């Protein structure tokens, strides 16, 4: 069995904890509670018959080094960078944030995820995708669960290959 540490990061209020809870516990809550520090849990997925333990770290708020200790990233195999499709402010610093993440986790796999897909119509989603300056890995809805399992399963597949 293989274990991989995954970090959920991005601006506050983008749905990191909701993605975490949807993936780990298959549940969603409309209540917004700020994450303080870090929450860690694990879930096993199967890739080509091999069990992979994903140790998922849901870290507080921002990406910047003055808000999140870089020690949280030590030993991580992958990062899920989450932004809110309904709030342009959450993806305006995307390139800078991704560059920073590449510095602290060189060679690590980074997935860029647009969350809260359920809150927008298709044409509005297309506009956001067009406005974002980097390739988006997947669009999710933590509320409905859409593409959440796919996100983590695809990440696991990429990490063990």
What this model shows, in words?
By secondary structure, this protein is an alpha/beta fold. The protein has one domain (2-160): Rossmann fold, CATH 3.40.50.300. 27% of the residues lie in helices and 28% in strands. It has 4 helices and 6 strands; from the N terminus they run E-H-E-E-E-H-E-H-E-H. It has helices at 16-25, 94-104, 122-131, 148-160; strands at residues 2-10, 38-47, 50-59, 78-84, 109-115, 138-139. A 6-stranded mixed beta sheet has the order 2-3-1-4-5-6, sandwiched between helices. The radius of gyration is 15 Å and the shape is globular. It starts with a strand and ends with a helix. 32% of the residues are buried. The mean pLDDT is 92.
Tell me the layout of helices and strands.
Elements: E1 2-10, H1 16-25, E2 38-47, E3 50-59, E4 78-84, H2 94-104, E5 109-115, H3 122-131, E6 138-139, H4 148-160
Parallel strand pairs: 1-3, 1-4, 4-5, 5-6
Antiparallel strand pairs: 2-3
Question: How would you summarize what this structure contains?
Answer:
It contains 4 helices and 6 strands; from the N terminus they run βαβββαβαβα.
């Amino acid at each position: 069995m293989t274990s991989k540490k995954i970090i959920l990061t991005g601006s506050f209020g983008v749905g990191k904890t909701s993605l975490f809870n949807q993936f780990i516990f298959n549940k969603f809550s409309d209540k917004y509670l700020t994450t303080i520090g870090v929450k860690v849990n694990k879930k096993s997925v199967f890739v080509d018959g091999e069990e992979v333990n994903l140790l998922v770290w849901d870290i507080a708020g921002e990406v910047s080094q003055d808000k999140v200790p870089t020690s949280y990233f030590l030993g991580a195999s992958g990062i899920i960078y989450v932004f809110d499709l309904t709030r342009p402010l959450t993806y305006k610093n995307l390139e800078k944030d991704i560059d920073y993440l590449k510095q602290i986790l060189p060679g690590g796999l980074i997935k860029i995820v647009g969350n809260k897909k359920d809150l927008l119509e298709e044409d509005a989603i297309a506009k956001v995708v067009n406005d974002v300056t980097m390739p988006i890995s997947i669009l999710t809805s933590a509320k409905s669960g859409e593409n959440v399992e796919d996100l983590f399963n695809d990440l696991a597949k990429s990490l063990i290959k």
